[in-house]
Write a sequence for this structure.
């Protein structure tokens, strides 16, 4: 049994002046749903393109299901599904013909899964793919990806631009039509989706892996503290764990990463007596974290 | 036949989803909505009901089992256990303090007298006991 | 694979069906008006189709290349080769249906109906056209798919198809270029499209094609620049040539002046006598002779020219059939075969006679109608249906007439690939003539006429002497053009001969004087392309010299020895600069060493064009910007 579906070591890639990936080390273990998030330009697309062999890294190693990404065999490609945000499909084909073609191509095809997923989207099989609505198109694409019974399914912002109903159907399909041996890498900007779907969280920023842990562990690492506004300068200088801060009226609200248990007394030592801490929700934690790593290094 | 559960998951709650499930089921057991011996919905059913990852439900169930709130019967599923306290005195005391602290924080700016607050608290407790009795009877 | 093929067909089915129908309608409409296989339009038709095939290939691959489509196409459990095969086979079969099938159907119908003489070569032509279109399709696809942004310049090579006259050669060229472009297209078919070729062979082959195209484009641009300069300063060497150059003589001199000019500086003992004779005698401009290519048996049908004889009186059109080597007469209205014309004369309809021509003749008329083949001149009297043999070359090895019969002031000139012949026009035109035509003069030509170099001009000026002729021959160099200028940019020559006939077809030719005239074109104009890309020229000269028999000399570095020393120096300097700059540019690019060395060596040979190709095509504003780490196969 494979331990890591995706494994990169020291992956570097730059375009022109811009460095897209910087010594990226990433391990994604087999099984479960892994959320991969990062702001635009964090290197997600580059990473996927390198993983699938559509781009060559400058240096470093990249393994997909244990195989070097530069020499992927057709057999391995059959075990990895990839769904992009545009849901690129041959527009000119009828849905049923497209399905028949895919079915022939994949030996592990699971027709039950296909019918189950497509059933949620109410798609007429004689319709041409190009005339499907955005949601139906996403549904067909996902149905085909899931029916291939892939060992690894990469979903790159698949719910972008979908309405609430389609999005719900899409999420449920991922949750309940995925086979037990499938590892899902889910890439999204929607934190509510991530929270429902994922078990582990990977945050990419500036071509590096900043976080790779379970969802709960991550939200446990971020806390919100409230201190008097006067101590702003002091906090900015002396608190290394600070992620982001905001002054509202006469209080400074700040997000702190990995605050020690004795954080309050630590603050007290700095001369900040009045400090109250609270745990935060996952979206807030992620937002605070990304604010720091996106803007903090400009 | 599995019991139906009325649970609501709040995305964006400071508590992780699995904690919300643990709390929700814990409350249902304490309030008598779930009786000892009731079967919990399967991991998959509850996941579908809440639109969340079944693995998260499984983790919540595992937590409940460690707390001793539910029993696992091989091949049959999870059942609400006989009520017994698994926590030691100190831990229970700590949790009580923390809960009371939260409650006090909430009500202190509502301009009630201490008596009024205590009375409300008592009536809530009485109501809880009442439903328990009814449930038992 | 089959599925992908079908999917590709379904994608373009409407477009293909509509174009095929439109094409068929057009061809049917045209075939009712004219003989489709020989209409003038058909001359451009293969080139138009070639352009369409290029566009089709480029479009099809562009649609697949766009990032997400590319991933969608290649990320599937099929070997990339099979996906490639499905896509290209679909494309080729669609081109076949839309571009070749309609014409083939019409031609088959014409053949079946028997209204025209459809020969085997017409079918060979279709096969050759298919290969040409496949090459064009692959070329178009390659220019879109390959990461070298100048890849489209390799399409210039498709112009080479225009220069091929033989069906068989066309088949061979089509096969070679289809295979070449196919190989390159297949090599550039890989998931990561951003990588340039690194293998030395692929790199050199693709770059040779790209740089040859780039050189052609650059030469055209430079020509325009020169032309603009000449127009602005009104110093066009062709309109206002410098005094003393060949162009001045050609423009200004009459026949007498040219003969006198040819005598200038002569130390021949008779020169004064000749000068006097020229002043009082009557000189004739016998004409400007251009060397033309021969019609060949089984050439491309659309090149057929002067192969028809129209007889208004009998309502018959005589058309030369390559398969029978006879003229076939058809009634202009009914299109029925009414007779044959062979070397023995006219024959009535029936089974074809045995008096075939030995080579493909052409028809020329000057009051009277003549048929000229390799070594014979026939006079045709359509009214009385008589064919009269007027002249036959003495059997000489490899000598044959060109299509250059010229009448002027009582003299007829006719060029063969070896000699200039003078006849008296009265004799040639004489209907009652009983004895064969006598040669008035025969003058051996310089060897360049043995090749098929076009643009080569000869001005012939003749004066009749008592016992022979005084002939001034002005050989003018290729004047313009982007491809011929470097081959032999020597000065023009003006030569004066005195011929004397012993009356027995033996000729005594005396060289009186030979002058060389400076070229009207400046050195910078003449050698511009050579300095830009010496290596490319070496290659192209060798190609022309060895394979096409066009160049006078085989291209080896040695034959450039007569180039001005400055030109040679500049060329060497250009190569050196190119190699050094390539080295500097590639120093920090992350490529395998073999690729870098190939590039440096290659640019050292090809010169500045190689450098431009590297910089504009691969480095400029691309991922491979020097100073950045670029995509490559290097491992840490």
């Amino acid at each position: 049994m494979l331990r890591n579906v995706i494994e990169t070591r020291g992956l570097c890639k730059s375009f022109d002046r811009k460095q897209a990936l910087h010594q990226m080390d990433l391990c994604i273990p087999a099984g479960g749903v892994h959320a991969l998030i990062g702001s635009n330009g964090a290197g997600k697309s580059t990473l996927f393109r390198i993983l699938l062999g559509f781009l060559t890294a400058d240096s470093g190693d990249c393994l997909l299901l244990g195989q070097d990404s530069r020499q992927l065999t057709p057999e391995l490609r059959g075990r990895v599904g990839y769904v992009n945000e545009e849901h690129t499909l041959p527009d000119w084909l009828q849905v049923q013909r497209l399905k028949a073609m895919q079915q022939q191509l994949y030996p592990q095809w699971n027709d039950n899964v296909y019918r189950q997923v497509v059933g949620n989207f109410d798609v007429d099989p004689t319709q041409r793919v190009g005339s499907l609505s955005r949601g139906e198109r996403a549904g067909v694409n996902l149905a085909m990806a899931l029916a291939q019974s892939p060992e690894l399914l990469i979903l790159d912002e698949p719910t972008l631009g979908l309405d609430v109903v389609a999005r719900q159907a899409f999420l449920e399909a991922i949750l309940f039509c995925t086979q037990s041996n499938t590892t899902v890498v889910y890439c999204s900007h929607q934190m509510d989706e991530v929270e429902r779907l994922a078990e582990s969280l990977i945050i990419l920023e500036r071509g590096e892996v900043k976080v790779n842990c379970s969802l709960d562990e991550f939200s446990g690492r971020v806390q919100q503290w409230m201190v008097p506004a006067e101590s702003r300068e002091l906090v900015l200088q002396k608190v290394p764990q600070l992620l982001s801060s905001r002054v509202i009226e006469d209080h400074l609200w700040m997000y702190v990463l990995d605050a020690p248990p004795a954080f309050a007394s630590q603050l007290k030592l700095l001369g900040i007596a009045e400090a109250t801490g609270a745990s935060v929700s996952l979206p807030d934690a992620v937002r605070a974290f990304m604010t720091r790593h996106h803007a903090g290094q400009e | 036949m599995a019991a139906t559960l009325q649970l609501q998951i709040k995305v964006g709650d400071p508590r992780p989803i699995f904690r919300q499930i643990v709390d929700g089921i814990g409350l249902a057991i304490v309030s008598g909505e779930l009786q000892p011996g009731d079967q919990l919905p399967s991991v998959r059913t509850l996941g579908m009901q809440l639109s969340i990852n079944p693995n998260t439900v499984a983790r919540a169930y595992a937590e409940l089992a460690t707390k001793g709130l539910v029993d696992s019967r091989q091949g049959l599923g999870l059942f609400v256990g006989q009520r017994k306290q698994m926590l030691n005195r100190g831990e229970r005391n700590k949790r009580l303090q923390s809960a009371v602290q939260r409650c006090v924080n909430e009500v202190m700016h509502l301009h009630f007298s201490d008596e009024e607050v205590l009375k409300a608290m008592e009536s809530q407790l009485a109501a809880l006991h009442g439903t328990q009795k009814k449930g038992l009877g | 694979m089959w599925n992908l093929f079908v999917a590709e067909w379904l994608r373009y089915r409407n477009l293909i069906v509509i174009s095929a129908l439109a094409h068929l309608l057009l061809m049917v409409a045209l075939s009712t008006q004219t003989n489709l296989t020989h209409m003038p339009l058909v001359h451009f038709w293969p080139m138009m189709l070639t352009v369409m095939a290029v566009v089709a290939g480029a479009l099809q691959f562009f649609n697949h290349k766009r990032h997400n489509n590319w991933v969608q196409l290649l990320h599937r459990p099929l070997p990339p080769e099979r996906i490639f095969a499905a896509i290209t086979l679909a494309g080729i079969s669609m081109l076949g249906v839309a571009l070749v099938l309609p014409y083939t159907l019409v031609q088959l119908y014409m053949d079946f109906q028997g209204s025209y003489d459809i020969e085997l070569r017409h079918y060979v032509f279709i096969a050759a056209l298919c290969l040409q279109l496949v090459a064009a399709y692959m070329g178009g696809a390659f220019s879109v798919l390959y990461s070298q942004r100048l890849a489209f310049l390799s399409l210039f090579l498709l112009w080479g198809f225009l220069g091929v006259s033989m069906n068989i050669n066309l088949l061979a060229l089509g096969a070679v270029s289809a295979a070449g472009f196919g190989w390159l297209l297949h090599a550039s078919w890989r998931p990561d499209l951003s990588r340039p070729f690194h293998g030395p062979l692929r790199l050199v082959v693709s770059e040779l094609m790209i740089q040859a195209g780039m050189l052609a484009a650059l030469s055209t641009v430079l020509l325009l620049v020169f032309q603009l300069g000449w127009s602005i300063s009104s110093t066009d060497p062709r309109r206002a040539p410098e005094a003393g150059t060949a162009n001045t003589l050609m423009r200004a001199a009459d026949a007498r002046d040219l003969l006198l000019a040819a005598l200038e500086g002569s130390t021949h003992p008779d020169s004064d006598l000749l000068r006097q004779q020229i002043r009082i005698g009557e000189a004739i401009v016998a004409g400007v002779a251009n060397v033309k290519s021969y019609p060949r048996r089984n050439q491309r049908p659309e090149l057929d020219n002067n192969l028809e004889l129209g007889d208004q009186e009998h309502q018959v059109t005589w058309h030369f059939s390559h398969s029978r080597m006879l003229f076939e007469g058809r009634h202009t209205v009914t299109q029925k075969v009414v007779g044959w014309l062979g070397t023995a004369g006219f024959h009535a309809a029936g089974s074809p006679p045995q008096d075939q021509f030995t080579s493909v003749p052409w028809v020329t008329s000057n009051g009277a109608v003549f048929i000229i083949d390799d070594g014979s001149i026939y006079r045709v009297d359509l009214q009385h249906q008589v064919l009269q043999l007027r002249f036959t070359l003495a059997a000489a090895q490899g000598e044959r007439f060109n299509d250059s019969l010229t009448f002027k002031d009582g003299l007829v000139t006719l060029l063969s690939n070896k000699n200039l012949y003078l006849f008296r026009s009265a004799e040639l035109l004489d209907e009652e003539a009983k004895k064969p035509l006598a040669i008035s003069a025969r003058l051996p030509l310089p060897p360049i006429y043995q090749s098929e170099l076009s643009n080569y001009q000869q001005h012939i000026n003749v004066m009749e002497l008592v016992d022979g002729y005084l002939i001034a021959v002005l050989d003018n160099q290729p004047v313009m053009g982007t491809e011929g200028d470097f081959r032999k940019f020597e000065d023009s020559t003006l030569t004066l001969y005195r011929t004397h006939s012993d009356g027995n077809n033996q000729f005594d030719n005396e060289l009186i004087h030979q002058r060389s005239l400076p070229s009207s074109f400046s050195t910078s104009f003449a050698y511009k392309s050579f300095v830009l890309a010496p290596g490319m020229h070496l290659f192209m000269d060798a190609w022309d010299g060895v394979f096409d028999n066009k160049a006078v000399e085989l291209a080896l570095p040695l034959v450039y020895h007569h180039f001005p020393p400055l030109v040679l120096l500049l060329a060497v300097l250009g190569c050196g600069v190119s190699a050094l700059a390539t080295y500097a540019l590639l120093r920090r690019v992350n490529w395998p060493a073999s690729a870098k060395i190939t590039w440096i060596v290659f640019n050292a040979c090809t010169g500045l064009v190689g450098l431009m190709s590297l910089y504009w095509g691969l480095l400029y504003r691309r991922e491979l910007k020097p100073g950045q780490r670029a995509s490559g196969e290097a491992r840490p």
Notes: Chain A touches chain C at residues 10, 12-17, 49, 52-61, 70, 72, 74-75, 77-78, 80, 82, 84, 86, 88-90, 92-93, 97, 101, 104-107 (CB under 8 Å). The two ends of chain A are 43 Å apart (CA to CA). Chain A has a mean pLDDT of 87.
